[in-house]
TrEMBL record:
Native organism: Symbiopectobacterium purcellii
A Pfam family matched in the record: DUF416
Source organism superkingdom: Bacteria
Record protein name field: YjaG family protein
InterPro entries, sorted: DUF416, YP001051499.1-like_dom_sf
């Protein structure tokens, strides 16, 4: 599935940079889950928000202690099943859930690189699936690479990567700034906006 040089470059980053990268991508997938919950009255979008906020907190507050085991238990019930819904939105919602699950697992295992790559791929997959669904057919990686929506997703991932890679040490202002910008934009990787 759509590989990108960013996956090799992520290896050069430290674990806090991986976690910030993942939190940013989850922030960009959150509206997809939020919108699905709103349309179907399934689950609890606030739970996604709370868990993601706990990760942001761990990034900026040294003493923050979070029991991610118990968060994971709560989270597993909040993931919809595609079989239960005849609604396209279930797929981006599930991808958003997969991404948050990867982020929680990275906190439990400390293995941040593999989870960062997995979330990057998940976010791209959400965009690719929507493009193929709208076109009504499967597409090759070559075709997908030429699509503006895919290009834009990679551009945003690279932009977040570059900001993080430029840091010598953990930069709290940058972390807070990324979080604030993404929350304020409130727009997902497939253009779903919060509060529309």
């Amino acid at each position: 599935m759509l590989r990108n040089p960013i996956h090799l470059r992520l290896e050069k980053l430290e674990s806090w940079q991986h976690v910030t990268f993942m939190a940013c991508l989850c922030e960009r997938m959150y509206p997809n889950y939020y919108e699905f919950c709103r349309q179907t009255e399934f689950g609890d979008a606030q739970l996604y928000r709370r868990i993601l906020d706990l990760v942001w907190e761990v990034l900026v507050v040294k003493e923050a202690k979070v029991n991610f085991d118990s968060q994971l238990e709560k989270w597993e019930d909040a993931i919809p099943s595609a079989d239960d819904y005849d609604l396209y939105g279930v797929y981006p919602a599930i991808d958003a859930c997969i991404a948050l699950g990867e982020l929680i697992h990275s906190q439990l295992s400390g293995a941040t690189l593999e989870h960062a790559i997995a979330i990057s791929e998940t976010s791209i997959r959400t965009v690719a699936m929507l493009e193929m669904t709208q076109a009504g057919r499967e597409m090759t990686d070559e075709e997908l690479y030429t699509l503006p929506a895919i290009e834009e997703e990679w551009d945003i991932q690279w932009e977040i990567f570059r900001l993080l890679a430029a840091c010598e040490e953990r930069d709290l202002e940058l972390i807070k700034g990324l979080r604030a910008d993404l929350r304020e934009a409130g727009s997902s990787n497939i253009g779903i906006n919060l509060g529309q």
